[in-house]
Amino acid sequence: MKYFIITGSSRGIGRTLTEKLLSPNHHLFCISREVNNELLSLAESNNVSMDYFDVDLKDVHKLDDLMNQIIQKINASIIESIYLVNNAAVVKPVEFISQSEPNGIIDHMNVNLIAPMLLTSSFIKYTKTLKVDKRVMNISSGLSFNLKPMLSCYSTSKAGLETFVKSIGVEQGDVKIMGVRPGATDTQMYEESVVTDERASKIKLAKTNYAAERILTYLFDRFEHGKVVKAW
Question: Which contiguous run of DSSP H or E holds residue 217?
Protein backbone atom coordinates (compact mmCIF):
# COMPACT_ATOMS: atom_id res chain seq x y z
CA MET A 1 0.00 0.00 0.00
CA LYS A 2 1.23 3.46 -0.91
CA TYR A 3 0.15 6.28 1.39
CA PHE A 4 -0.29 9.90 0.29
CA ILE A 5 -0.84 13.01 2.42
CA ILE A 6 -2.04 15.92 0.29
CA THR A 7 -2.76 19.44 1.53
CA GLY A 8 -5.07 21.76 -0.35
CA SER A 9 -6.84 18.79 -1.88
CA SER A 10 -10.27 20.37 -2.29
CA ARG A 11 -9.64 22.42 -5.43
CA GLY A 12 -7.19 23.39 -8.16
CA ILE A 13 -4.00 21.39 -8.63
CA GLY A 14 -4.50 19.65 -5.27
CA ARG A 15 -7.86 18.26 -6.29
CA THR A 16 -6.54 17.04 -9.63
CA LEU A 17 -3.55 15.42 -7.94
CA THR A 18 -5.92 13.62 -5.59
CA GLU A 19 -8.11 12.41 -8.46
CA LYS A 20 -5.08 11.06 -10.33
CA LEU A 21 -3.92 9.17 -7.25
CA LEU A 22 -7.21 7.33 -6.80
CA SER A 23 -6.10 3.72 -7.05
CA PRO A 24 -7.07 0.63 -5.03
CA ASN A 25 -3.47 0.21 -3.81
CA HIS A 26 -3.30 3.81 -2.58
CA HIS A 27 -4.52 5.23 0.71
CA LEU A 28 -5.07 9.00 0.59
CA PHE A 29 -5.12 11.46 3.46
CA CYS A 30 -6.67 14.72 2.25
CA ILE A 31 -6.36 18.02 4.09
CA SER A 32 -8.24 21.22 3.31
CA ARG A 33 -10.34 23.85 5.06
CA GLU A 34 -13.54 22.14 3.94
CA VAL A 35 -14.21 18.51 3.12
CA ASN A 36 -14.67 17.86 -0.59
CA ASN A 37 -17.53 15.36 -0.53
CA GLU A 38 -17.25 14.76 -4.27
CA LEU A 39 -13.74 13.40 -3.75
CA LEU A 40 -14.95 11.16 -0.92
CA SER A 41 -17.72 9.79 -3.15
CA LEU A 42 -15.30 9.30 -6.02
CA ALA A 43 -12.90 7.41 -3.76
CA GLU A 44 -15.70 5.19 -2.45
CA SER A 45 -16.96 4.38 -5.95
CA ASN A 46 -13.42 3.41 -7.01
CA ASN A 47 -12.78 1.31 -3.89
CA VAL A 48 -10.02 3.66 -2.71
CA SER A 49 -9.24 4.25 0.95
CA MET A 50 -9.47 7.94 1.84
CA ASP A 51 -9.43 9.86 5.11
CA TYR A 52 -10.38 13.54 4.98
CA PHE A 53 -9.35 16.17 7.52
CA ASP A 54 -11.01 19.59 7.46
CA VAL A 55 -8.18 21.66 8.90
CA ASP A 56 -7.28 25.29 8.29
CA LEU A 57 -3.51 25.34 7.93
CA LYS A 58 -3.26 28.81 9.39
CA ASP A 59 -4.01 27.11 12.74
CA VAL A 60 -0.42 25.95 12.89
CA HIS A 61 -0.50 24.75 16.49
CA LYS A 62 -2.81 21.88 15.46
CA LEU A 63 -0.54 20.46 12.79
CA ASP A 64 1.77 18.27 14.84
CA ASP A 65 -1.23 16.49 16.34
CA LEU A 66 -2.78 16.21 12.88
CA MET A 67 0.28 14.47 11.47
CA ASN A 68 0.42 12.16 14.47
CA GLN A 69 -3.22 11.19 13.88
CA ILE A 70 -2.50 10.46 10.23
CA ILE A 71 0.57 8.31 10.85
CA GLN A 72 -1.33 6.35 13.52
CA LYS A 73 -3.77 5.25 10.79
CA ILE A 74 -1.03 3.62 8.71
CA ASN A 75 -0.80 -0.16 8.63
CA ALA A 76 2.93 -0.79 9.05
CA SER A 77 2.58 -4.38 7.84
CA ILE A 78 1.47 -3.42 4.32
CA ILE A 79 3.05 -0.01 3.71
CA GLU A 80 5.33 0.23 0.65
CA SER A 81 5.96 3.98 0.67
CA ILE A 82 4.60 7.24 2.00
CA TYR A 83 4.47 10.68 0.42
CA LEU A 84 3.69 14.14 1.78
CA VAL A 85 2.63 16.71 -0.83
CA ASN A 86 2.61 20.23 0.60
CA ASN A 87 0.40 21.77 -2.06
CA ALA A 88 -1.90 24.12 -0.13
CA ALA A 89 -1.25 27.84 -0.51
CA VAL A 90 -2.97 31.20 -0.50
CA VAL A 91 -2.09 34.23 -2.58
CA LYS A 92 -3.86 36.99 -0.64
CA PRO A 93 -3.08 39.67 0.43
CA VAL A 94 -2.57 40.97 -3.11
CA GLU A 95 -1.73 44.55 -2.22
CA PHE A 96 1.15 46.82 -1.38
CA ILE A 97 2.75 45.73 1.88
CA SER A 98 1.98 49.09 3.47
CA GLN A 99 -1.73 48.35 2.99
CA SER A 100 -1.62 44.84 4.44
CA GLU A 101 -3.07 44.10 7.86
CA PRO A 102 -0.66 42.36 10.26
CA ASN A 103 -2.97 39.38 10.74
CA GLY A 104 -3.30 38.96 6.98
CA ILE A 105 0.47 38.75 6.61
CA ILE A 106 0.74 36.30 9.52
CA ASP A 107 -2.03 34.04 8.19
CA HIS A 108 -0.44 34.05 4.75
CA MET A 109 2.97 33.00 6.03
CA ASN A 110 1.43 30.39 8.31
CA VAL A 111 -0.33 28.66 5.41
CA ASN A 112 2.37 28.99 2.76
CA LEU A 113 5.56 28.53 4.77
CA ILE A 114 5.11 27.65 8.44
CA ALA A 115 2.55 24.89 7.82
CA PRO A 116 4.73 23.02 5.27
CA MET A 117 7.71 23.34 7.62
CA LEU A 118 5.76 21.97 10.58
CA LEU A 119 4.12 19.18 8.59
CA THR A 120 7.49 18.15 7.18
CA SER A 121 9.05 18.21 10.64
CA SER A 122 6.26 16.07 12.08
CA PHE A 123 6.30 13.76 9.06
CA ILE A 124 10.00 13.05 9.57
CA LYS A 125 9.50 12.55 13.30
CA TYR A 126 6.47 10.24 13.20
CA THR A 127 7.64 8.10 10.27
CA LYS A 128 11.06 7.43 11.77
CA THR A 129 10.31 3.77 12.47
CA LEU A 130 8.91 3.14 8.99
CA LYS A 131 11.71 1.63 6.90
CA VAL A 132 10.18 2.43 3.53
CA ASP A 133 10.55 5.04 0.80
CA LYS A 134 9.53 8.41 2.30
CA ARG A 135 9.26 11.57 0.20
CA VAL A 136 8.13 15.16 0.67
CA MET A 137 7.12 17.25 -2.34
CA ASN A 138 6.69 20.98 -1.80
CA ILE A 139 4.83 22.96 -4.47
CA SER A 140 6.49 26.30 -5.09
CA SER A 141 6.06 28.96 -7.78
CA GLY A 142 8.04 30.96 -10.30
CA LEU A 143 7.04 34.00 -8.25
CA SER A 144 9.68 32.89 -5.74
CA PHE A 145 12.13 34.83 -7.93
CA ASN A 146 9.98 36.51 -10.61
CA LEU A 147 8.93 39.40 -8.42
CA LYS A 148 5.86 41.57 -8.99
CA PRO A 149 4.31 44.47 -7.09
CA MET A 150 1.60 43.59 -4.57
CA LEU A 151 2.73 39.96 -4.28
CA SER A 152 5.55 40.38 -1.77
CA CYS A 153 4.01 38.00 0.78
CA TYR A 154 3.51 35.25 -1.78
CA SER A 155 6.97 35.61 -3.30
CA THR A 156 8.61 35.68 0.13
CA SER A 157 6.74 32.59 1.34
CA LYS A 158 7.64 30.60 -1.78
CA ALA A 159 11.28 31.69 -1.70
CA GLY A 160 11.39 30.59 1.93
CA LEU A 161 9.80 27.27 1.03
CA GLU A 162 12.47 26.64 -1.60
CA THR A 163 15.27 27.44 0.86
CA PHE A 164 13.63 25.05 3.31
CA VAL A 165 13.71 22.26 0.70
CA LYS A 166 17.40 22.83 0.05
CA SER A 167 18.20 23.03 3.78
CA ILE A 168 16.40 19.80 4.64
CA GLY A 169 18.10 18.18 1.67
CA VAL A 170 21.42 18.93 3.35
CA GLU A 171 20.48 17.75 6.84
CA GLN A 172 18.12 14.84 6.11
CA GLY A 173 18.82 11.52 4.44
CA ASP A 174 16.08 9.20 5.64
CA VAL A 175 13.23 11.27 4.22
CA LYS A 176 13.77 12.67 0.73
CA ILE A 177 12.52 16.17 -0.11
CA MET A 178 12.06 18.11 -3.32
CA GLY A 179 10.38 21.27 -4.60
CA VAL A 180 8.59 21.82 -7.91
CA ARG A 181 7.57 25.13 -9.52
CA PRO A 182 4.48 24.70 -11.71
CA GLY A 183 4.04 27.28 -14.45
CA ALA A 184 1.00 29.52 -14.70
CA THR A 185 -2.03 27.27 -14.25
CA ASP A 186 -5.72 27.93 -14.77
CA THR A 187 -6.85 28.00 -11.14
CA GLN A 188 -8.80 30.32 -8.88
CA MET A 189 -5.59 31.18 -7.07
CA TYR A 190 -3.97 32.31 -10.31
CA GLU A 191 -6.95 34.60 -10.98
CA GLU A 192 -6.54 36.07 -7.51
CA SER A 193 -2.84 36.71 -8.13
CA VAL A 194 -3.27 38.68 -11.34
CA VAL A 195 -2.68 42.37 -10.74
CA THR A 196 -2.63 45.26 -13.17
CA ASP A 197 -0.27 43.73 -15.68
CA GLU A 198 -1.10 43.78 -19.39
CA ARG A 199 1.13 40.76 -19.97
CA ALA A 200 -1.03 38.60 -17.68
CA SER A 201 -3.84 38.42 -20.26
CA LYS A 202 -1.40 37.08 -22.87
CA ILE A 203 -0.04 34.22 -20.76
CA LYS A 204 -1.13 30.78 -21.89
CA LEU A 205 -2.35 28.95 -18.81
CA ALA A 206 -1.77 25.25 -18.28
CA LYS A 207 -4.69 23.06 -17.26
CA THR A 208 -4.63 21.54 -13.78
CA ASN A 209 -4.53 18.10 -15.40
CA TYR A 210 -1.21 18.88 -17.06
CA ALA A 211 0.21 20.49 -13.90
CA ALA A 212 -0.73 17.46 -11.81
CA GLU A 213 0.80 15.06 -14.34
CA ARG A 214 4.10 16.97 -14.30
CA ILE A 215 4.20 17.06 -10.49
CA LEU A 216 3.56 13.33 -10.26
CA THR A 217 6.28 12.67 -12.84
CA TYR A 218 8.76 14.35 -10.54
CA LEU A 219 7.34 12.71 -7.43
CA PHE A 220 7.70 9.18 -8.83
CA ASP A 221 10.21 9.18 -11.67
CA ARG A 222 12.40 12.30 -11.57
CA PHE A 223 12.74 12.93 -7.85
CA GLU A 224 15.92 14.85 -6.91
CA HIS A 225 16.59 15.08 -3.19
CA GLY A 226 17.15 18.64 -1.98
CA LYS A 227 16.44 20.19 -5.38
CA VAL A 228 13.85 22.70 -6.62
CA VAL A 229 12.99 22.47 -10.32
CA LYS A 230 10.59 23.92 -12.87
CA ALA A 231 7.71 21.56 -13.57
CA TRP A 232 7.77 22.52 -17.26
Answer: helix 208-220
**CB-based contact 138:179 (threshold 8 Å):** yes
In three state form, how does the secondary structure of 64-85 look? HHHHHHHHHCCCCCCCCEEEEE
Task: Please list the pLDDT of the chain residue by residue as tens digits (232 residues).
Answer: 999 999 999 999 999 999 999 999 999 999 999 999 999 999 999 999 999 999 999 999 999 999 999 999 999 999 999 999 999 999 999 999 999 999 999 999 999 999 999 999 999 999 999 999 999 999 999 999 999 999 999 999 999 999 999 999 999 999 999 999 998 887 766 666 666 454 555 678 999 999 999 999 999 999 999 999 999 9
Signed CA dihedral, 208, 211, 213, 216: sign only: negative
Active site residue: 3, 52, 83, 154, which one?
A: 154
Beta bridge partners of 185: 206
Cα–Cα distances in Å, from 52 out to 29, 98, 165, 170? 6, 38, 26, 32
154 is catalytic: yes
Query: Closest by alpha carbon to 111, among 160, 65, 150?
Result: 160
Query: What span, in angstroms and rounded, lies between the C-alpha atoms of 112 and 216?
Result: 20
| Statement: the pTM of the whole predicted model exceeds 0.70 | yes
